[in-house]
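On clarity, I found the account of how folds are encoded harder to follow than it need be. Since the whole study asks how a given chain folds, the encoding of that fold should be made plain. For illustration, here is how one protein appears when written out as sequence plus structure tokens:

:::
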Amino acid sequence: MFLLRLIIPDRPGSLGTVSTALGEVNADIHAIEIVEHRRENGTAVDEIVVDLPPGVLPDRLVSACNGVPDVEVIWFSRYGAGGGLHMDLEAVEQMTSAPADAIDILVEQSPAVLHADWAALLDGTGSEVKVALETSATPEFGDVAGRWLPMEKATTLEAPDHKGLAESVLVAAPLESDRRVLVIGRRGGPEFLGSEVARLSYLASLAVTIRATA
């Protein structure tokens, strides 16, 4: 399973042309998501999850997309989150079914929702910043987490020069207070787009609201 992030012309037929090109290399498309519209230059950022049959080199996916006029591949990687995009609603359904655990559920689901590698809930409400909850593969934060607090709103973060974090791109959002923060990381990229920051902000606010109903 592979994830492609593309810049394509934001006009009818563009996505169909890309789909046809991928079909010509025997790629099986599992899901397509429009991540962002860039109306200032008439393009869109799309993500496509595809599967390849045995014997087909992954590089052929990139070549197929780059062969379509005005299409640019800006990210390509294996995709290990189960092949399902549109995870926002599933996360919300899980939170509403267990309101008392809404914060924990968002932390656990956020890597799949944002196609990331790990997530951690940092708690700086005490005398020191602690990791209150983390998913697998979360790196050590050491003493760098304190520089991000307090946090007023969802934002991207500059990765510190710290083992395990330096190679990641980061996004974060406050949960319940400006000193309890959800941090999400992707190893190596791609950068989090403004639309993804907005999605995280919405889900974080929703998780807090749902938790308050418990």
